[in-house]
Amino acid sequence: MFPSWSFANISFFQPPAFLMIGIPGLEAVHGWISIPFSSMYAAALTGNCLILLAVRRTPSLHQPMYYFLSMLALTDVGLTLSTMPTTLAVLWFDHRLIGFNACLAQMFFLHFFSVVESSVLLAMSFDRFVAISNPLRYASVLTDSVIIRIGLGIVARATVSLFPLPFLLKRLNFCPGKILLSHSFCFHADVMKRACADITVNIIYGLYVVLSTMGIDSLLIVLSYTLILHTVMSLASPRERIRALNTCVSHILAVLVFFIPVIGVSMIHRFGRHLPPIVHALVAYVYLVVPPVLNPIIYSVKSKPIRKAMLRVLREKRKG
Hints:
Radius of gyration: 22 Å
Strand order of the largest sheet: 1-2
Distance between the termini: 48 Å
Strand content: under 5%
Largest sheet: 2 strands, antiparallel
Order of helices and strands: EHHEHHHHHHHHHH
Shape: globular
Mean pLDDT: 91
Structural class: mainly alpha
């Protein structure tokens, strides 16, 4: 039910709140749909927190590779918490209103953690490149201070890139009759389309952010693996080649799990206006919910040290 606001004779309008939507066409079964969503959110938080605890409590995991994995897990926790409150509020309680400023804040953090995740995946590809191409200098290149500077650089880059977005939206005049969003959270591309004003600047800046962060990151990741493959093929022993490539499998899967939905969301927002609303919603949920769920599974299955450390943490929790 839409709130009854009166906006007669207003030349500049910003809605007090937007109206979110769950999964279009399936509103009658939102209660049932909330069960898998709640399970995925719980799995994402549990798995990523387990990785953080495992790395922290296991001295043998205090290495660059696992520090970067901790950054990825922390980012996934942030990404999960960015969308979980509003999504579950819509599915559980049909609470669909979100304040204008709260929407802008959620939008900032949602995109912030997405850009951070892209940057962390790039840093992890650099870690694999150094480990394979120059293993003797690995520890001296990726020292603790270097890793801290990389982490701070990632946060600074995301903050500087995304800081203008809320202010670019706040300057727009919105339509009183266009307060219904396409998701149960606030996307920049979705919110700006609710404006009754020229959004050319928003479109250009949004495209610039995507290309200058995820676009460049994806190209540099491909370049890293091209160099890694060149190094691996120069190894004399087939066993050494397989061992070297095996250390990259988890990261390659994490890259695919993140970037394939990113490409899907970008393509649908640009060219998929004719598609049913449910397709937009499902692709967005895959982009935001699935990577935080799958990343802990990928690393716990493919990395024996991580798996052992996570099981040790679970055993300690049960004893405690």
